[in-house]
User: Fold this.
Amino acid sequence: MKLVSSKLCLVVASSALLFAGCSKKPERPTPPATAMGMALGPGPIAPPTDVNAAPDTSLQPRLPDGVIDDGNTIRGLLQAVYFDFDQSAVKADQRDKLKAAKEYLEKNPGQRLLLEGHCDWQGTAEYNLGLGDRRASAAKKYLASLGVVADKLESNSKGSLEAAKDGNDAARAKDRRVELVIIKAK
Assistant:
């Protein structure tokens, strides 16, 4: 019996302590009543900023229409170089675009250039991948002749992967190109 009464006393004492610790929560002070609120002075407190809100881009430079900056690359800032049907030689009227790319790299020494070769939908996929590669290599070789160092240039071929299927003459002419994609410094 003595054991039961001491256990009962222990349970009652534990319950009393538990309920005493769970009293009503204290009220939170208003921001002006806190040390930070007093430091800010009287007046309304600014509402908290929304962390999900879009960042303020008013101070960031605005890119021209059609230019895409995905954080790692910039597409559309430098003009594409166009080629004749089934050709990979850089045409004389397209060379100024590559000279502009060289000047861009000189002004932005931390950046590199990806030369992406494209073809129209005519021809087999394998042939077009090879032609896209030859076009990108021709643009790379021309830039090297202008003095651009090789480690600033990369090339690859998209072939006809992004070509307008069954496009007209104008669409096919736009597909025969090397895109100059800027690779941003990290």
